[in-house]
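Incident review: delayed structure delivery

Summary: a single-chain prediction request sat in the queue longer than the usual turnaround. Root cause was a stuck worker, restarted by the on-call engineer. No data loss occurred. The affected request and its eventual output are reproduced below so the record is complete for anyone auditing the incident later.

Affected input:
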Amino acid sequence: MKGYRYSRWDGEQEAFSLDPRAALDALSDRMMEGLTSEEALDWMRRHGFPLAGMDMPVLGSEDLQSLLREEARSLYERYDLSDVEADLQRRLDEILDREETGLRDRHGFESARLNDFLDRRHRPEQRTSQRVEAFRDFSFEDSDAAEDFAELLAELDRMRSLEDFLDREAGHFRGSEPADYETAQEIRERLEELQQLAQALETGRFDEISAERLQDLLGDAAGGSFVLLRDLESGLRDAGYLSPDGTSLTPRAIRRIGSQALVDVYSALRKQLGGEHESPGRGVSTPRPDETRAWEFGDSLDLDLSRTVLNAVKRQSAGGRPPGSAVSLGVEDFEVRERDFSTQTTTVLLLDMSWSMSWEGRFPAAKRVALAMDQLIRSQFPRDHFFVVGFSTRARELRIRELPEVSWDMGDPFTNLQEGLMVAERLIRQHPSASPQIIVITDGQPTAYFEDSQLRVEWPMGYGGVSPRAVASTLQTVRRVTRMGVTINSFMLDDAPELVGFVERMTEINKGRAFYTQPSQLGSFLMVDYVSRRRSRRGR
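Output delivered after worker restart:
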């Protein structure tokens, strides 16, 4: 069993104020598993979550309910309530004994007054509260008995509550410590409070719960965790990460999730691999406004005019020309801006969303990489185009704003890579570039395809077999995409022979690269390939 050490909370709930960025990071971890933002929030409230910067994990509502049940169990195992009603009966009988003795002394053994008293006392009611109720309008003659009975009558409502409680719960108490009436009332009130808190937690009525009271009952960790659970949604909303109705992520949140995904999958790479797409040739280029150099033969006349004129003025001044004379430019004065030459790419990431991607953490790893790629390209390669296409039995473009909440297609086992390539082909034609590429992340061979505009599915032929028509149709599309000059790089999340064989045939046609990798290594593999354009692992 896990154990945690907590420092004491002083009762100030600000000590447990929510860090929205850390909370969003925890939320994104759940969403990587395929949950929507609403589902992830509900999961976190129920099950708790680790929070960066805190030594303790945040306890979920189910954890808090377990602690409440444990506190109730400790009361059941400590106390014995079997004698509580007898104790209450004895208390009433002592009062009635004094009154009966006084009545006999003053009125004799045969009187209407005494008979009325005895009739009330010996009614067949079994519950103490009913016996007390029988004397509500009786005028006690013994002053001490009257005073004690008035105190008992004031307790009538609590007495009834205790009797109802004992009817329900007395059999659950197995302890050895006997409880008197007052102790039993305290136990009842505590257990009822524990039950009310548990019900409020179970139904999400957090506004009915006092964090300070929860701390008094369960300790510092429970009180602090409750504050964080209670403020989770409002804190994310106030920070601009959730929409006002709390049902969806904002663009700001998606950017943050992408940045964190980039950190997660890229942190293992060497810093020098994070530069531009370097190109030895002259192609599309961007100037560096802060760097210039002297013009050389063959350079374009992309002159930095201010520095060129300044060079001419300095040269003429050094040669003795008087100030204010006309400035004449020479070739030696020319200064040009340095330029960065880089390739512009259009990249389409094909993300397998078939049911098998839910195994072994494959889909969360792939989705995290897609978010990281989008963040990398937006921040480092803004001229590049990047798209994500999901495919299972059908393929569709996934907008970046929907990517954090997308999940694998539950119950859909077919893989239509052919249509994924067709969607990618359309996107590349719409956004042409000098270096188009398709990145395929998959864990299975094709099992769905189109024939004469008709969707068809095809189970593999036997265990470890292939789907020959699906494979043939997909490879035909690969040939067409290859003729467009598109590079296809494949990342396999399974090393099944049928998948490896298909990818090898696709690579032979396209001359792209293919890698087998575990989900935990996918980010490093893909990032290295994209940024440095060279293999970081042995490819197939």
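Verification: The radius of gyration is 39 Å.
Action items: add queue-age alerting; document worker restart procedure.
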